[in-house]
Specification:
The protein is mainly α. It has two domains: 392 residues, no CATH class; 148 residues, Tetratricopeptide repeat domain (Serine Threonine Protein Phosphatase 5, Tetratricopeptide repeat). It contains 28 helices and no strands. Helix 6 packs antiparallel against helix 7 and helix 9 runs antiparallel to helix 10. The radius of gyration is 25 Å and the shape is globular. It starts with a helix and ends in a 6-residue tail after the last helix.
């Protein structure tokens, strides 16, 4: 306890930032569960039964977690959290806040060890605590926890490495790796650190060993778990991987632009969106011109770094920031590339860089010191205000959708997301207007057609609903959701023959997809064939463990 008090006495800026952090995030405790929080946490029956725990390292993991990504440490934490928190969203949110605060303290310790500057470390941790780009990681419980736990273990691994505890370094790294794929970059960060201090020749063995472990993890993850029937051919998983489907060469070409986008998000976090991975392509950010320009800038930075040997701490953290983004580059299809919460781990390095630059300015004395202090106070104050406003957006799905459209005006995806929320709230006219605007704007997905079909059915327009469902299926014939949605709409429109045909086609094409079988079961039951329906429900239950005959 004495050391705890001494730590905050020596770092008053961090202590004040912690108070501000809990003050601005206290209102977010009542924001409830959102989107994927429901299937992954609130509605995930698997984490309530400890007998499922051994499945963390089997192909059943994806059914167990409700996720298309392999992060067993996160799911293990959810087993424990459910035992303590139940489905009280406030406690789950409080846990996220405490982990984030702990990460800030650990980051402070890492920066002190690397730079030797307490002011730099305190400023870095304070900015990390209050950075607006972290609002998604903290508010979106199921999506943010992997990033926060990954950084927690990476900070612990870094401190162990800096203390010469190599076995602990490896252990913490493995925990980080099983929390999120972002940890794959850690061996590269160690190599950059050793290069900067001239110790690469004598200290390359552990980074090389960890790199080999990371490579084995990637191969195991792709070769073993992609063989699972709920994962290999799942179009939803392909969609979740985002740009990875474009191939490794395209991912390599676009990597510097991707890093530039994340840097922009940290320097100027104005346009924040939970759907940023789906909204960004509409901006044309990854154009060939932008990609080539970004490559020129990155190559120039790399040449300068090699010549200067990265002897300055700020240069070390600058290079480490770019290296930390390698796992989301899309070079290996382990995860998607552009999501707001993906910046959480790299942001620690960005904040360390900002803290060091602040310390250099404040050390100059006189007007430079006053300017540096004023700049950091303005930055932290503006961040706190932005965080408070963003937390308000997260209070309801409708408010979040409104904020997305405001952040990305004209975005067709944002229009459709808001239309979904307006439909849910009973504003059918508003939802219809947004759907039509998205179609007129050239929205390419089938989702908007199925949304229109639902709206038409509510108004009794069965023929228009069926036509919209057929259009949606035509747009995305490779998606299992499209076939299931089309079958359901056609059944509700009274076209049971066509609905059964669509549902049977879904089961034939996507034999791993539980909703295809449960939908066919519902249609067969409507047609007075309960025996066949029961068989479909049983198959759905076998595949997914969630769908049950009613």
């Amino acid at each position: 306890m004495k050391r705890f008090r001494e730590f905050f006495r020596d770092n008053p800026m961090l202590a004040l930032a912690l108070l501000a952090f809990f003050a601005v995030y206290s209102a977010s405790l009542n924001n409830g569960f959102h989107r994927d929080d429901h299937p992954h946490i609130a509605g995930n029956a698997a984490i309530r039964d400890l007998s499922n725990f051994p499945k963390l390292f089997s192909r059943d993991y994806f059914v167990l977690s409700g996720s298309v990504a392999y992060r067993p440490m996160v799911t293990a934490f959810r087993f424990a959290q459910y035992r303590v928190f139940g489905t009280d969203a406030r406690l789950w949110r409080l846990f996220n806040l405490l982990v984030h605060a702990l990460n800030a303290v650990l980051l402070c310790l890492v920066v002190i060890r690397v730079s030797g500057s307490r002011p730099a470390a305190a400023a870095a941790a304070a900015l990390f605590l209050l950075h607006p780009a972290h609002t998604e990681a903290l508010n979106y419980i199921s999506n943010g926890q992997p990033d926060m736990l990954c950084l927690l273990f990476l900070c612990a691994a870094s401190l162990a490495y800096l203390s010469g505890r190599l076995a602990w370094t490896a252990a913490w790294f493995l925990l980080a790796l099983f929390s999120k794929e972002m940890a794959l970059a850690f061996p590269v960060l160690l190599l950059i650190y050793e290069y900067s201090r001239g110790g690469l020749r004598r200290a390359w063995r552990l980074p090389a060993l960890l790199a080999a472990a990371a490579l084995l993890f990637a191969v195991w993850r792709l070769a073993w778990f992609r063989a699972g029937p709920v994962f290999l051919d799942n179009a939803q998983a392909d969609a979740a991987f985002g740009f990875s489907a474009q191939g490794s060469f395209t991912a390599l070409l676009q990597f510097p632009a991707l890093a530039g986008y994340y840097l922009k998000l940290l320097v100027w976090p104005a346009a924040l969106s939970v759907e940023i991975d789906r909204l960004l392509p509409e901006t044309g950010f990854f154009s060939l011109f932008n990609a080539l320009l970004a490559w020129l800038a990155l190559l120039a930075l790399a040449a300068w770094g090699i010549m200067s040997r990265l002897v300055r701490p700020w240069a070390l953290f600058a290079f480490a920031f770019f290296a930390a983004l390698l796992p989301v580059s899309g070079l290996v299809p382990l995860t998607s590339r552009v999501q707001e919460h993906f910046v959480y781990v790299p942001s620690a390095l960005f904040c360390a860089l900002a803290g060091i630059l602040f310390a250099r300015g404040s050390a100059a004395g006189g007007k430079a010191r006053a300017a540096a202090l004023a700049a950091v106070m303005v930055a932290l104050g503006a961040s706190a205000v932005r965080v408070y406003a963003r937390n308000a957006d997260w209070r309801s799905p409708a408010a979040l959708a409104e904020a997305d459209l405001k952040a990305f005006p004209g975005s067709l995806v944002a229009m459709v997301n808001l239309a979904v929320q307006k439909k849910a709230s009973g504003d059918r006219a508003g939802a219809l207007a947004l759907c039509q605007a998205a179609l007129e704007g050239g929205f390419a997905g089938g989702e908007v057609h199925f949304l229109l079909a639902d709206l038409y059915l509510v108004d009794g327009l069965r023929e228009k609903a069926a036509a919209a469902a057929r259009a949606g299926l035509e747009k995305e014939p490779g998606s299992p959701d499209s076939w299931v949605n089309a079958a359901r709409v056609l059944a509700r429109a009274g076209l049971l023959d066509e609905a059964e045909t669509a549902a049977r086609e879904a089961t034939a094409r996507f034999g791993y997809f539980p909703p295809a079988f449960s939908t066919l079961g519902e249609i067969l039951r409507l047609r007075g064939r309960p025996g066949e329906a029961a068989g479909m429900f049983s198959e759905a239950a076998r595949l997914g463990g969630r769908t049950r005959a009613r």
